[in-house]
Amino acid sequence: MALLGTLCITISFILSLYSILGSLISINLKTEGLKISARWSSYLTFPVISIGIFLLVYSFVTHDFSIKYVYNHSNLLMEPIYTWVAIYAGNEGSLLYISTVISLGSLLSIKSLQKKIPESVPHITIIMMGILSFFLGVMLFLADPFSLLEFQVQDGRGINPLLKHPGMFTHPPLLMAGLATISIPFAITTGMLISGNYTDKGTEFIRVTTLIIWLMLGIGLLLGSWWAYTILGWGGYWAWDPIENVGLMPWLVLTALIHSLIVQRRRGMFRLWNLVLINIAFVLSQFGMFINRGGPVVSVHSFAASTLGYIFLTFMILSIIFPLIIFLWKYSELLNSRKIDSFLSKESSFLINNFLLLAITFVTLWGLVFPLFSELFGKEPVTVGTPYYNSVNGPLLLILILLMSIGPILPWKEGSTKSFIRSIKFPFATSVFCMIICLVFLSNNFLAVLAFSSVSLVFATILQEWIIGTRNRIKHFKENIIIAFIKLLNGNRTKHGGYIVHLSILMLAMGIIGTNFYQIKADHVLLKNKLFNFQNYQIELTSIETKNFADRIERVAKFNIYKNQSSEQTNNSKKITELEGSNALYPSFNMASVRAGIHSTIIEDLYIVPSEFLGDDKLLIRISINPFISWLWFAGPIFFLGAIFTLWPRTEKH
Questions:
Q1: Which residues of the chain fall below pLDDT 70?
Q2: Does residue 324 sit in helix, strand or coil?
Q3: Helix axis angle, 171-181 relative to 242-267, nearest 10°?
Q4: What is the b/e burial string over 428-463, where b = at least 16 CB atoms within 10 angstroms of the residue's CB?
Q5: What sign does the dihedral 231-234-235-236 (CA atoms) show?
Q6: Which of 91, 84, 89 lies closest to 53 in space, CA to CA?
Q7: Measured between alpha carbons, how far is 250 from 281 in angstroms, rounded to an integer?
Q8: Which of 164, 181, 206 is the last residue of a domain?
Q9: Mean of the per-residue pLDDT values for the chain?
Q10: Residue pLDDT, tens place only, 265-318
Q11: DSSP-derived secondary structure letter, 584
């Protein structure tokens, strides 16, 4: 089985090299047959690699511990359902997964573009196969997932305990697939540029591809936050961890790209700028690969110590040099005489949006690499923590939200101050009303009040757009309100799908504002059957149980939760739920896995972590109230719905 798996990687590697050489020769000698042969060779890499990944799955299912990777990431006790997670639990398997994703993306992209831009396909094939051959070469010579164990064993080490979570079925593969497939728009634009065919023909395909990648990264990041919130036991969901950041940065750049591609489609502008954004996103994706695979930055998410860091660093440097050379070579062909007509226009707002997103990206990047520079030029590394990111990125994100309220009401080309003031009246009045409500009922924290009022400003803008559009359809087409609204949304899916995504961003903002400004935390020792008053809740420890398993020792605490019915009478309480929190120790990994007890409502979460078991009837807990945090998780389906609505193909009427 191991030999067959390695053979699949070898054949795929040879196919990718043949595709590169065949495409190069066909370009120079104009040989159609060789061009077709090279293209089909690139297609074949996917089924061959797929056989390889199937063989690895089979090895996990049959407990073939003669394969080192299977031994390191599974054991006889591992539930079969975690086989999928084990595939990408380590460097070697994740590289096989990434190679599979890239080969699939290449197949779909090259096949789709063959009819749209056939003259650029050989160049695109060379770039895609070049990237794929790098990953295949790393596996073949340095990190073979099918390498054999030097000694015989009856059982494996087991899967990392932190990966035994529902979020791990989708969070890592989505992030890895997103980072890997950024190579697709990069290969397309670079291939078109080299072939002298950088036109708007491939713009729609790049837009759709970028949206899919952006959706994968966005959902992956959100699932990662949910995983951190439920299993790491620190009460938060985002700590600006290096691996979180290397997933976030390309997503921010792709967000900028999606907006500026709209301008390119509508006005034929930003062509050069969009190329720059794609190149930045690609470099950042390779930077993420480097950090996650033996890079110098330590993270709870990264793989164990690896010797691959310098290999990926070299590839990242090449990914900077290669597009830069092509860009400088073709710079004169990219210049566009069209300019922004007015500051009060959609084009202008999209460009400012781009600059803000890039500013947040580079602030995050600087925080990530600053410890490395401080260590290089100083005696000790200076770490950059959450306060830096919050204090610098916080205001930039707030300005970005404010801009989300202005963009929709601005026209294309040129707008007037008078029409802008008329359009902003209702959203501004709503924002002022929200500010007053926050000052009266929440607090006088200026930043929190400003943030909530900014969210209401954007929401009112979107609502106004939908109300005006629906009312116009009712007036002109005599439709009822529901039909008018549905047809309004369906009439411009890019625009209104974007509004739906904006609503999900507002929901994320609500959760972030609530937890950052109004979270309440405490540590307390609970005694069994004794009530502990915490804000408007009463917590009772009902039992502590120790469970011994073959791979772990698990201690489980159970709680009764009561809610005070009035603020004056703390004894007037009603039982609302029972919670269970656990702390499991895995001796073979020297690792603990914590599961918090969480009671969620739309207003707040009650979050209880069993920090330390002090006996059979005494427990140290970390308890917190996290306002509006459930809005973060509700945002996920809305975000997905908005992106899918934007992507859904329209039926052309002839």
A1: 235, 294-306, 337, 378-379, 381, 566-571, 650-654
A2: helix
A3: 50
A4: bebbeebbeebeeeeeeeeebbbbbbbbbbbbbbbe
A5: negative
A6: 84
A7: 5
A8: 164
A9: 88
A10: 888 888 889 999 999 999 999 999 888 876 555 554 555 445 778 888 899 999
A11: E
Side-chain-facing half-sphere of 71: CA atoms under 13 Å: 15
Q: From CA 316, how far away is CA 131, in angstroms rounded?
A: 11
What are residue 11's phi and psi, to 5 degrees? -65, -45
Chain centroid, CA 544 distance in Å:
38
Is 652 part of a structural domain of the chain?
no
Number of independent structural domains in the chain: 2
**Contact call for residues 179 and 289 (beta carbons, < 8 A):** yes
* pLDDT score recorded for residue 566: 62
430-472: pLDDT as tens digits = 999 999 998 888 777 888 999 999 999 999 999 999 999 999 9
Which residues, in sequence order, are bridge partners of residue 594?
Answer: 583
Instruction: Give me the pLDDT at residue 209, please.
Output: 94
Residue 568 is assigned to a structural domain of this protein: yes
Q: What residues are paired with 624 via a beta bridge?
A: 521, 607
Three-class secondary structure of residue 315 per DSSP = helix
384-419 pLDDT, tens digit per residue, is 788 888 889 999 999 999 999 888 888 888 778 888
Q: Nearest Cα to 190, choosing from 285, 274, 258, 311?
A: 274
Q: How far is Cα of residue 449 from the mean position of the Cα atoms in its chain?
A: 28
Q: What are the φ/ψ torsions at residue 410 (nearest 5 degrees)?
A: -90, 145
Task: Answer whether residue 38 is part of any domain.
Answer: yes
Name the nearest CA neighbour of 218 among 485, 466, 539, 508.
Answer: 508
Cα 238 → chain centroid: 12
Residue bearing tokens 């073959």: 550
Answer whether 605's CB lies under 8 Å from 598's CB. yes
The amino acid sitting at 1 is: M
- Alpha carbons 142 and 158: distance in angstroms, whole number: 23
pTM of the model: 0.92
Residue 53 has a CB neighbour count (10 Å cut-off) of 18
Q: Are 217 and 288 in contact (CB under 8 A)?
A: no
User: Tokens representing 529?
Assistant: 């059957």
CA dist 374 and 371 (Å) reads 5
154, with CB counted inside 10 A (0-12, 13-18, 19+), is: exposed
Query: What sections of 117-241 are H helices per DSSP?
Result: 121-141, 171-181, 183-194, 203-231
In a domain, 626, yes or no: yes
Domain containing residue 536: 520-632
What are residue 614's phi and psi, to 5 degrees? -100, 10
> Between vectors from CA 389 to CA 384 and to CA 393, what angle results, nearest 5°?
155
Domain boundary among 145, 164, 183: 164
Instruction: With both helix axes pointing from N to C terminus, report the angle between 271-292 and 309-329 in degrees, rounded to the nearest 10.
Output: 170
Neighbours of 330 (CB within 10 A): 17
Closest CA to 167 of 83, 86, 225: 225
Q: Token digits for 129?
A: 């196969």
